[in-house]
Amino acid sequence: MPSPQQKIPFLSAILFCLLALSAHAQVLLGVDVLERENFSILEGRRIGLVTNQTGVDSQGVKTRLLLRRAGNIRLVALFSPEHGLDGVEMAGRYVASRRDSLTGLPVYSLYGPTRKPSPQMLQGVDALVFDMQDIGSRSYTYVSTMVKCMEAAGEKGIPFIVLDRPNPLGGMRIEGPSIEPRWISFVGQLPIPYVHGMTVGELARMANGRGWVQPRCNLTVISMRGWQRPMTWPDTGLRWVPTSPNIPYATSPFYYVATGIVGELAGMDIGVGTSEPFELAAAKWLDGARFTSALRSTHIAGVEYSEYSKNGFRGARIRIDPRAAGNLSALGIYILALANSVARPDLFERSPSKLEMFYKVYGSSSIRGQIEGQVPVPRIVNSWLPENQRFDAERTPYLLY
Predict the structure, then answer these.
(1) What are the mean pLDDT values of the chain's consecutive 10-residue runs (401 residues total)?
(2) How many CB atoms lie within 10 A of CB 69?
(3) Is 219 left (phi over 0), alpha (psi -120 to 50) or beta?
(4) In DSSP terms, which residues pair with 221 in a beta bridge?
(5) How far, in Å, CA of 221 to CA of 17, rounded?
(6) CB under 8 Å to 128, separation ≥6 — which residues?
(7) Helix 377-395 vs helix 328-341: crossing angle, to nearest 10
(8) Residues near 99 by Cβ (< 8 Å), separated by ≥ 6?
(9) Staple partner for 236: which of 12, 27, 163, 201, CB 3.0–4.6 Å?
(10) Cβ contacts of residue 343 below 8 Å, gap of 6+?
């Protein structure tokens, strides 16, 4: 047995290793890097900031306050996305322009009459800065807001600066359907897979480089330090700020991928509006035990299920490991196919007013014929692979990490 004197160096070594691992896991956000460099890239400019409640540094200080206090720049205007500057407005609800109580600055809504900053909004702005947390899914509108702001910056001839942030799903996961040109919309602005595995800065580089933004803008991305592609949010050491009312937890983006598409159709309860948003799959016509058993038989790695029943809705509660290796987009199609197979009328017939949005989110109307024709889900999932592989190769020149 080692003596107490011998134990001390050993324990010190263990402590050193733990501290080293902790330091390695800590990620510096783009805004942290900008702050450490004394905002030099923005010096002397009048800044417009595209942001919301997620625009904070690693210590939780709001980006708009940091820029407002910086002595070498002048923050003159704020621009807010869907859900508003404070992230409390519900999905799809128009947001009014207003004045920010923290900074006294005008907040121009980009989720009201316009999705793109107008020339009037950009009067007196020398550069646009983007700092918002995305969730890694194509159908979330913050990247669409970024693209529209890039277009506005290109039209005005002013620089566009992205303060980069982690993709909470990590940088390796590429899955789900791509989007057909006819279904490009604000809920799917870029021709990318449903899960793309890129940061907002990388997406900005790709959109600008491939001409998806017209005219192209003068783009700069302030990269993070310490983020690596295999990292999901729990690996970053960062505090999660809810990106919108139904993405309250760091794990919520994984559930959004799994059930968000299904939730666009009528009759399905996926937990939105509860303390478990996107974590359920239930309907009044389902047999909870059979449905849960059927989901277990799909054997999607890293996902577990338990039977759910509440308020007449029956189905499954879903639990996803953030490091799940399984295809979460495929899980959504299994849920859709299983629920539809016993629905009378079927999910599509129940949802005439919702079908257009469903196709915009999914990226194609072909899924209806596949589900109603009982095409096996593995065949549907395999049909995504060529586009996923092509995208993986095409994104490579734009990756930063």
Answers:
(1) 42 38 69 98 98 98 98 97 96 94 97 96 98 98 98 98 98 98 97 98 98 98 98 97 98 98 97 97 98 98 98 98 97 98 97 98 98 98 98 98 98
(2) 11
(3) beta
(4) 162
(5) 33
(6) 47, 48, 49, 50, 79, 117, 122, 149, 152, 153, 158, 159, 160, 161
(7) 150
(8) 105, 106, 107
(9) 27
(10) 267, 283, 285, 350
Using the structure block, give the residue that is written with the tokens 């030099």.
40
Residues 333, 323: Cα–Cα separation, whole Å: 20
**Which residue bears the tokens 């899955």?**
175
Q: What is the pLDDT of residue 17?
A: 38
Backbone angles phi, psi at 297, to 5 degrees: -70, -10
DSSP secondary structure, 220-266, as one string: EEE--BS--TT--GGGTTPPP--SSTT--STTHHHHHHHHTTGGGST
Contacts of 331 (CB under 8 A, 6+ apart): 258, 259, 295, 298, 300, 303, 318
